[in-house]
Amino acid sequence: MFRTKSIDQILIDSDAPEHRLKRSLTAWDLTGLGIGAIIGTGIFVLIGTAIVGDAHRPGAGPGIILSFILSGITCALAALCYAEFAAMIPVAGSAYTYSYATLGEFLAWLTGWNLILEYGVACVAVAIGWSGYFNNILTLCGLELPYWATHPPGADGGIANIPAAIIVLLVTGILIVGVKESARATCGIVLVKLAVIVFFIAVGSSSVDTANWSPFMPFGFSGVGAAAAIVFFAYIGFDAVSTTAEEAKNPQRDLPIGIFASLAICTLLYISVAAVLTGLVPFSKIDIHAPVA
Question: What is the pLDDT of residues 21-39, one digit of tens each?
Fold first, then answer.
């Protein structure tokens, strides 16, 4: 139950012809993959709740900037571990493989299923968030999907969130085609997301009213700490880079670059978005459901 597999044996097994994956990803591909995995629902949806707060926890207000810094530092510590393991054991499996080599088979099994659960829940959250923004675009264009087609089954008449299901199927199809094709699609999606964020920062920065940053921490450090726990979700995804270790051309060099570069870029973008968003309007007037819209 607690037997481990040596690193040498793991490397030998992964090098078998029937298990070997094509090494085609560069440091740029890995960085793009990391940014694409990190930037998602967190910055486009959860930032509203983190700033304003809700009935269960106080918000950070303009102090959300500090919340992102705290979460970024916390993730950087975990990223150090991932970077070292990924360079030492450059095979597919990520945390599952690392646990197998250090903690044993049973804990590796638990880790593997937790990873599957994590990615499954994150996939659902991102798809629902995308569906919400897509429905807003349709509304602005004078179109509107029926209620039953945009909400999950329930007593209120919902049947299925069709836009969310379609985007999941579309992304699944891209992944099935091949790793290089999915990497290119990821880079394209990353460019779109970066363009939206950079556009928001560039256009919004000229209209920032510094008076909106006062008080900077309306609920004190308790609000900043509570918000840091929320926006931590916005950083989830950098570990996805390590899952492609077996497909990287030079994993010992490129994996640490991909992990830290994606984390650093996203942290800077998050801080910039937070500063601009809280400077445009008083934090109490931010829509928690679509804060960046």
Answer: 677 788 888 888 888 788 8
pLDDT tens, residue by residue, 197-224: 899 899 988 888 889 898 888 888 888 9
Instruction: Pick one of 3.30.300.350, 3.40.50.720, 3.20.20.220, 1.20.1740.10 as the CATH number of 28-285.
Output: 1.20.1740.10
Please give the angle made by the CA atoms of 40, 263 and 10, to the nearest 5 degrees: 100
Q: Token digits for 87?
A: 């360079």
User: Which tokens in the block code for residue 116?
Assistant: 């599957």
First to last CA, the chain: 50
Structural Rg of the chain based on CA atoms: 21
What is the CA angle 75-81-83, rounded to 5?
95
The span from the CA of 126 to the CA of 142, in Å, is: 25
Query: Which residues have a Cβ under 8 Å from the Cβ of 84 and sit 6 or more positions away?
Result: none
- Please give the pLDDT value at position 290: 65
The count of other CB atoms within 10 Å of the CB of residue 158 is: 15
Taking CB atoms within 8 Å and a gap of at least 24, the contacts of 288-291 are 288/48, 288/49, 288/51, 288/52, 288/54, 289/45, 289/48, 289/132, 290/44, 290/45, 290/48, 290/132, 290/133, 290/136, 291/44, 291/45, 291/47, 291/48, 291/51
Q: Which residues contact 178 (CB under 8 A, 6 or more apart)?
A: none
Cα distance between residue 131 and residue 167, in whole Å: 8
